[in-house]
Amino acid sequence: MLHTLDPHSNYFDAKEFEEFMTEQRSQYFGIGATIGDLSDADGKVLATYVKATFEGAPANKAGLRYGDKFVSFSGQRVMPDGKIVEVKNESLLGKPFPEVRSFLRGPEGTAVQLTVERLGTGKRETVDIVRGAVPQPSVSEIYMIRPGVGYMALRGQFTQTISGEFIKGLRQLKAAGMQQLIIDLRDNGGGLVNQAKNIANAFLPYGQTVFSQKGRLEGVNEIYPAENRTPDRSPIVVLVNRNTASASEILAGALQDHDRALIVGEDTFGKGLVQYPFRLEYGTMLLLTIAKYETPSGRAINVIILTAIFIIITPRAAAIATTVRRWKSQKGGRARPIRDAPFTAAAVSILMW
Known about the structure:
With 353 residues, the chain is α+β, with helices and mostly antiparallel strands.
């Protein structure tokens, strides 16, 4: 019924509301591992395996590693209705990773026992793990692409900590000699709008509009200005794609409208509606649209921010893209797919013009 009003008004039951709040807190309680499905040629899920563990997280300390396949689980499981039940040797084989994740997450300090099958040897081992707080950083990558050019990937949501992470990363890059900056907002679906304002505030002079909010209700019409009297003046390129939405579009739109950054990539998603959370009984919530966002020039974000697409394949750009992939490989991470490389290379080329 709510979706007849607009695509983004929604109702959350108690479990969905708790998951929503977990996303906003930038941390969750669990074992601290990225997991994925192992499927056959027909797409049938055979098992869930470990893709990576977070340094210092319970899974990492317990010795779980890439390729470990989950076989069975014992311990407390949080059910979809929020109830906690004791489970003994329940098979995890054939379960998709979202269901397996519900076994791995749970109250902090609770012990679980996992049987895993090691990649390569096929040997099955039982591992005891105590769930703990696992941070989910919103700024996923911070490094220098080449001398003078810094890069920050904001691939997570705009959570409660993202602006603090961003400012810390900006200082880190400045200390490393950054003179130009690439901000990667591809696949960032948005989140808390005040966090987008805080990041834009780092680059816009005092008094310039970051965004405006307009609606029918009294008190929702408001203009949000920058409050920084000493903004950073580094040249900026912002990478976007079709999945860049909401708070990400607010940040990109503010920098674009004030000629503070060049936008590179694809047309963005176009979500510019303001949702207000109404807490209801039994731990549920109603997220209702009450207003819309506009960029400083008055463009309604719900009508898609226009972007320029630059794909510049020159010998220099190709060399930069290769350097990016090599850097990731040396750091132990997988190289970003080649389809991403032209945009990153183009951004660096633009900054060097």
